[in-house]
Write a structure and sequence with these properties.
The protein is an alpha/beta fold. The protein has two domains: about 5-185, Rossmann fold; about 195-395, CoaB-like (Rossmann fold, 3-Layer(aba) Sandwich). The chain is about 30% helix and about 25% strand. The chain has helices at about 20-30, 50-55, 75-80, 80-85, 95-100, 110-115, 130, 135-145, 170-185, 220-230, 260-270, 310-315, 335-345, 385-395, and strands spanning about 5-10, 35-40, 60, 85-90, 120-125, 150, 155, 165, 195-200, 205-210, 210-215, 235-240, 250-255, 275, 285, 305, 325-330, 350-355, 365-375, 375-385. The strands form five sheets. An eight-stranded mixed β-sheet has the order 13-12-9-14-17-18-19-20, with helices on both faces. It has a six-stranded parallel β-sheet with strand order 3-2-1-4-5-6, with helices on both faces. Helix 5 (about 95-100) packs across helix 8 and helix 10 packs across helix 14 (about 385-395). It is elongated. The protein starts with 6 loop residues before the first strand and ends in a 7-residue tail after the last helix. The structure holds cytidine-5'-triphosphate (CTP). Cytidine-5'-triphosphate (CTP) binds near residues 283, 328 and 329. Cytidine-5'-triphosphate binds next to helix 12 and strand 17.
Length: about 400
């Protein structure tokens, strides 16, 4: 089972099966997923939060208010609902089930469940007598009506010493259900059946075999855009320059080095339904490229440069009906005006304007601040590149994911 690149939020509630959640977390990680954990206060009576924070290599969210460290904003955890591709509550006690179907938010787990826009998978786990109680049966029915996904408990030996239905299914079953749900989610995504081309990373313009002109682009924003488009159902092709960031292999990838290489690839994919041009393309290339290493001299020297093709402007010029072109604008001055000018000049539908001088924005960072500009629209996005990429595409394509 492959869950690489998927963000799974694991909710652990206060039942004896909470100890099994640690194994479940490990199985998710082995399948390639990234994990964060939220626990109810009573779950911590069964397993310490430290177990989950060590395994997930991340803080565990238990309390809404952090008295010991108020600087750790409680709203941070609300963002987990946006970060997650799936929120899995395993085990889910009768108490938490009841809170979820009645919209209660009295701890971090239930608050995140209300805020989450991703699908919710509940693994109800309790004693057989409890699961047959009419109130629990009704809550389970309500959970289905709300569109929560349920994985029915298994039968067998229970912690009470009795035999019956109520056991937490094996991790393999939960992972299988996860894969199915994520596939279904993709199929009904707003970009389903759309061909999406995303470019990422820098170009390199070689002067000789050992020197080139380039820029510090890490490709992180483009890769995040490609991931977001893929999770929204798009048939994604990622065109990437030389980057060190890990490249997902869930979708097609083709590599480029120079702007001319990228130009050829862009022409090959010019019919795509959506083009997202996040690559940092060098505007110039050396007039000459020496096949041998240039030797140093004790004198000034001049480098002659000629312009590269403006790939996005050419795509804009030949834009077909219904095609959506999304560009980026890297600016240090007059962010909005310069970006709006590029939007018009390159015949784009949207432009993501990036102020390179802000804190935690632009090249190499994991976070970014983007001013998204459309022909009659403007909206700011700020936060982790992985999260805002998704928000930007959801905003552009106007559909919120369904549970
Ligand atoms: N771009 C492109 N081909 C180029 C240069 C840029 O396709 N030769 C694309 C970038 O990928 C980006 C958009 O055009 O989506 C704007 O790039 P940017 O570097 O901000 O602006 P430029 O058009 O190069 O203008 P300037 O450098 O003068 O700001």
């Amino acid at each position: 089972m492959d869950l690489s690149g998927k963000n799974i939020l694991l909710g652990v509630t206060g039942g004896i099966a909470a100890y099994k959640s640690a194994y479940l977390l490990r199985e998710y990680q082995k399948a390639g997923a990234e994990l964060r954990v939220t626990m109810t206060p009573s779950a911590t009576r069964f397993v310490g939060a430290e177990t989950f924070s060590t395994l997930s290599r991340h803080d565990v969210a238990v309390e809404v208010f952090n008295d010991t460290n108020p600087s750790k904003s409680w709203t941070k955890h609300i963002h987990w609902g946006e970060w997650a591709d799936l929120f899995v509550i395993a085990p889910c006690t009768a108490n938490t089930l009841s809170k979820l179907v009645h919209g209660q938010a009295d701890n971090m787990l239930t608050s995140v469940a209300l805020a989450a826009r991703c699908p919710l998978l509940l693994c109800p786990t309790m004693d057989a007598e409890m699961i047959h109680h009419p109130a629990v049966r009704r809550n389970l029915k309500m959970a289905e009506e709300y569109g929560f996904h349920l994985l029915q408990p298994e039968s067998g030996y229970l912690a009470s010493g009795l035999e019956g239905t109520g056991r937490l299914p094996e991790p393999e079953e939960i992972l299988k259900k996860t894969v199915t749900l994520l596939k279904q989610q993709r199929a009904k995504g707003p970009l389903s059946k759309k061909k999406v081309v995303v470019t990422a990373g820098p170009t390199r313009e070689f002067l000789d075999p050992v020197r080139f002109i380039s820029n510090p682009s890490s490709g992180k924003m483009g890769i995040a855009m490609a991931e977001a488009a893929h999770s929204m159902g798009g048939e994604v092709t990622l065109l990437h320059g030389p980057v060190e960031s890990p490249l997902p292999d869930r979708f097609r990838r083709e590599s480029f080095e120079s702007a001319d290489d990228l130009f050829r690839l862009a022409q090959k994919h010019a019919k795509a339904d959506i083009v997202i041009m996040s690559a940092a393309v060098s505007d110039y290339k050396p007039v000459e490229r020496n096949s041998r290493k240039t030797k140093k001299k004790d004198a000034e020297t001049t480098l002659r440069l000629e312009p590269n093709p403006d790939i996005l402007a050419l795509l804009g010029k030949n834009k077909r009906d219904g095609q959506i072109l999304i560009g980026f604008a890297m600016e240090t001055d007059n962010l909005e005006n310069n970006a709006l000018e590029k939007l018009k000049k390159k015949n784009l539908d949207w432009i993501c304007a990036n102020n390179l001088t802000g804190d935690g924005t632009g090249f190499e960072h994991d976070t970014n601040q983007i001013l998204l500009l459309g022909k009659n629209d403007r909206k700011t996005f700020q936060g982790e590149k992985k999260i805002i990429s998704r928000q930007i595409l959801e905003y552009i394509f106007k559909e919120k994911p369904k549970r």
